[in-house]
Automatic annotation (TrEMBL):
Family classification: Belongs to the ExbD/TolR family.
The protein's name: ExbD/TolR family protein
Membrane topology, as annotated: Single-pass membrane protein; Single-pass type II membrane protein
Keywords: Cell membrane, Membrane, Protein transport, Transmembrane, Transmembrane helix, Transport
UniProt entry tagged with the keyword Magnesium: no
Transmembrane annotation, as ranges: 12-36
Keyword Chloroplast: no
InterPro entries for this protein: ExbD
Compartment(s): Cell membrane
Amino acid sequence: MRRRHRRLTAQADLDITAFLNLMIVLVPVLLLGMVFTQIRMIELNFPGMEAGQAPASENFRLVVTVIPAGLEVADSERGLIEVLPVKDGGQDYQGLSALLQQIKARMPEKTDVTLEVGPDVDYQTLVTVMDTVRSYPAVVAASVVEAELFPDVSLMDAGEDRTLAQRAAAADGGGV
């Protein structure tokens, strides 16, 4: 007599306890990490006109030139306002901010500025100058807030042969 052997077919239970423990720890960590990795964007307006388009007439066009030798603030119509040479091995951001605050006090409706950037200017200098021309820290009601200077920033190439000495010499002859 032959015996028939039946194979035992037992259903295996799926144990997901370890996976759930991982998710309980991993999900809050990932959610908390997302708050600290926000990407900031600065909106830029690049100068340039299409063929046949006439430039808009403006009374005052503020231009800040950034080159490794220093910073220049000028009105494109009237000429150089001030030259800020490199101070203590770095750009004079405090001087630039103070000068722009004076200009903003005279023309509060003005919101645009053009940055002429030299070819040898590093990225960090450009970003710091952009932040400096956009706003400055001001104390309002015993708290520090960012006050607006010139938030509409346009970029332009300053050319390879730009030096502070050329502009300073031109300013001695008839600056603003």
